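Deliverable D4.2, example record:
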Amino acid sequence: MPQDCVILTLACGKYRFNKLDFGAIDGIPRLIDIGQCNNAYSAIQVALALSKVFNCGVNELPLSLVLSWFEQKAVAILLTLLSLGIKGIRVGPTPPAFISPGVFKVLQDNFDLKLISTPDKDLADILKK
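Output generated by the structure prediction step:
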């Protein structure tokens, strides 16, 4: 991860790397944990506040969302983000079971929903934003 990036974590997927030390930027930790699935609303509010600070829409922020471990709460988070019009979300390693190939195509076309691939490829694609 480039040294000028901040990582916000939320929910179950964070346990893969929350124990790692990513250092700090001007005294602010580069890895900030927002909480559990139940705190997803707080993460959405952080994104909305950032968009106001930078005077742009949420989809214009250099912000990437990666959702994994699709149990009920994660699915609810995905559906909430889609209902808010958030685009470019990465899910995986497979789509949730309720998303058929046809539905996935519609979500790709309308929300730029993507499946994760490899960490190196995904990070390279994310940093192109």
